[in-house]
Amino acid sequence: MKPMTLVPFTSADTARLAEALDQAVADGATPGGVIALGTLGEPPRFLKAGRIADELGDTAPGPDTVYDIASLTKVVATWPLVCQAFDADVLSRTAPVRDFLPAIDGPAPSGEATIEQLLTHTAGLKASTRLDHYRGTETPLHELLCREPLEAEPGSHRYINRGYILLGLALAHAHGRPLDELARALWDDLGMTTTTYGPVARGPQVAPTEQRIPGAPRIWGTPHDDNAALLGGVAGHAGTFSTARDLARYAEYLIDPATRLHGWIRASTLPFAPIEPGLDRGLSWICAPGNVAYHHGFTGTSLYLAPTTGRYLTICTNAVYHGEARKKIAPLRALALKTITAT
């Protein structure tokens, strides 16, 4: 692993990102958004564009606007809690997840997946996750998930939410505390005072997301992810709300060699399973050239880390406000990745 050599963002970097965010708003990709970018030891810079939502008039987003960060929950809540559990010998990287859940009698194919396989999306679990299909049964959720047959041979990469649902359940059982309490203790320790599991109260500081039915209210303050909503807003794969300011604070913590999780983010940028040419899955994070780690959230959020150059960048938008977020803000995300990997 390369030693850290700080490479600050240039004024040209900032200008290009600001222009791309403005263009995303102008193109109708998102009502507005906030980018936080910085280098270790320096205050973050915040780039803002557009407005939070039509429902809030001309109210502009800012560093403290609360966004549903969707699958960033995997790396903002579940991944760091699992890493802490490894350090405390509460979880074992190579042990099956069923070992850390209430006892299950008989075969449980998906329960044989190791914690490492779940973290790296290589367990071969069923790709489709519809917790609503489990309604009407008295069988505990962990048992229902563990008894599901595998859909593929373990080893190959396939992005799957149910693995992180299982990780969240395992963390709660192994610690004897609810997942949201574990996450709250972590975030408080890091000074992430506005990061929380949903639901959160509607208000001008919270960005609404999708309108599922024409004429009906938008999803606002409750998780956009259906499975997280069915779990009361608290899940290992989604359900977290945060701000650009808090995510910048978290990113700086991870890339700081003096902090407890820095070793884990270094380890997590090592390729574990190929995704596509040039991209691999590490421990939870996507690994890009230059020892860069990043992850996206379905609602239109992203977090990028470059531990060897001391750079970080986060995108907070509610691009799902206008439908499919991934395609709409793809140019902005591509520029963010290109910018943070530059040396």
Automatic annotation (TrEMBL):
Residues 18-337 form the Beta-lactamase-related domain. It holds the Pfam family Beta-lactamase. It comes from the Bacteria. The keyword Hydrolase applies. Keywords: Hydrolase. PANTHER family: BETA-LACTAMASE-RELATED, BETA-LACTAMASE-RELATED DOMAIN-CONTAINING PROTEIN. This is Beta-lactamase family protein. It comes from Streptomyces antimicrobicus.
